[in-house]
Request: fold
Amino acid sequence: MFRDRRHAGEVLASELAGYRGQPDAVLLALPRGGVPVAAAIAQSLNLPLDVLPVHKIGAPMQPEYAVGAVASDGLVVLDEEAIAAMHISQADLDSIVAREQEELLRREREYRDGRPALALDGKVAILIDDGLATGYTMLVAVHAARRERAARVVVAVPVAPQETINRLRKEADEVVCAYVPPRLLAVGQFYENFGQVSDEEVRADLASNT
Reply:
């Protein structure tokens, strides 16, 4: 059990100690929940921090159920089987993707506050979130980092189910997970404090760790 996201970041930092101070390594947080986790890691390991805005694509009638994910550059990863099983039309899907991408672009502008994105070309991109369930947001983040020519992509999270870890190991160069529970119903069940992270907190963490 993690006290909060910063405690989870401290735990993950010990697992990532081999990257401490490496000049070719950068931390990329999945906002918003991944930012305080990554901020604690950045402070511990002396690594630069940026965001990689991605968001799940929720089913039209069940928005909490992820049928894929989208990155701010328009990259999309879909669960084709779930989409077919739920009879989601292409028009509905296109509408959801367009809406989420617009929101991601807004967040990206707001969070960076005019700062340029960290260059990933030839870098070790360490992708951080506060936990994974299906893992689709992290999967699209891995693909987005590849598109930015990262030399190595590492996924690091406090908690995730084994099935999701196995899926990500096929896409990332390394997957680091502090705790793999026998059963995961929700990421928040492994935190004492799992309150929503505000945009203001994200901006403050990024400004103090870039």
